[in-house]
Amino acid sequence: KTIEKDTLVFYDWNIGYCGLGKESSFFFDAKGFVKQNIYPYGIDVMPTKEWNAKNYEGFLSTLKKWHEDADFINIQEIDRNSKRSYHTDQVEGAKEILQDFNYAFGKNYDVKFVPMPIFKPMGKVIGGVATFAKYDFAETPVKYAFPSNFSWPKGLFFLDRCFVKHHFNLKNGKQLILINTHNSAYDGGMLKKQEMAYFKKYIVDEYAKGNYVVVGGDWNQIPPGYKPLKENSDYEEMPIPTDFADKDWTFAFDGNTPTNRKVDASYEAGKTYTTVIDFYLLSPNVELLEVKGQPNGFEFSDHQPVRMVCKLKQ
């Protein structure tokens, strides 16, 4: 069905494969690994079965709360068949909740056996990004792999970062282009620069056609205008390049509600380092009405969701 209204509600959430709730630390964020290139035994690789079940139920119950309100939902790090999430098809679970939504899944992690860390290998991983919409896709959604990857052998076992582009018909004959993105992390900024240069072309070209563009996801970068809590922390907080978008484009983020936490230890409010890396980018013909983080104490993921409301200018 065509989008008939001009005010739309979007949600975005990196669910961390339901494996990185408030109790969890993660081996790749642990200082011992990052600074000494070792794999410390005792740092979490996957959650306990109980933690995973709690996080998964929290994810599904959150979708239930969003169901009536949302027009679009962008999800990152959602698993379909992975050891780390006890081989639960999380996309199917979401579909059961959002039965009147159309959906698209973009696979960006498909490895038969991840050998890291040495003492507790992650094993099989199949996951990616998923987009749910109350409207019909005007074209088949397309996944674009970012032209960047870690060098061999690390690149064999890391996820391939991607974005998925979706087209929806509007009543004025134009299209809404919704992009669900998940950019690189743990790269020191080098891969992000390549990705952003590649990314920009697709965004600008769609707007030049007269379409409306909304980009939402986990950018693994901080938006322009957001000031990190610490200027010299060991948390990788690369800002979006200043020349990425013209000044009439809008970066929509809630600077008062963190969307991501450091995962070197279990979450402690007021102590764990937090930042904002999940947000939206709106083309000049899209007016931002509201954007608010949805704080949940990082109970179910190392990310907190974001809700955004915008109006398509006529």
Question: Can you tell me about this structure?
Answer:
- The protein is of the alpha+beta class.
- The protein is 16% helix and 30% strand.
- The protein is built from 4 helices and 14 strands.
- It has helices at 31-36, 49-66, 90-97, 190-208; strands at residues 7-14, 72-79, 102-114, 123-133, 142-145, 162-169, 175-182, 212-218, 250-252, 260-261, 274-275, 278-282, 286-293, 306-312.
- The strands form 3 sheets. The chain has a 6-stranded mixed beta sheet, with helices on one face.
- A hairpin with an 8-residue loop joins strand 3 and strand 4.
- It is globular and about 50 Å long.
- The two termini are 19 Å apart.
Tell me what portion of residues adopts beta-strand conformation. 25-35%
The number of distinct helices, counting runs of at least 4 residues, comes to: 4
Mean pLDDT: 85
Question: How do the SSEs run, as a string of H and E?
Answer: EHHEHEEEEEHEEEEEEE
**C-alpha Rg (nearest Å):** 19 Å
Helix content: 10-25%
Number of strands: 14
State the end-to-end distance.
Answer: 19 Å
Which regions are unreliable across 5 or more consecutive residues at pLDDT < 50? 27-43, 150-158
- Backbone shape: globular
Largest sheet: 6 strands, mixed
Q: Output the structural class.
A: alpha+beta
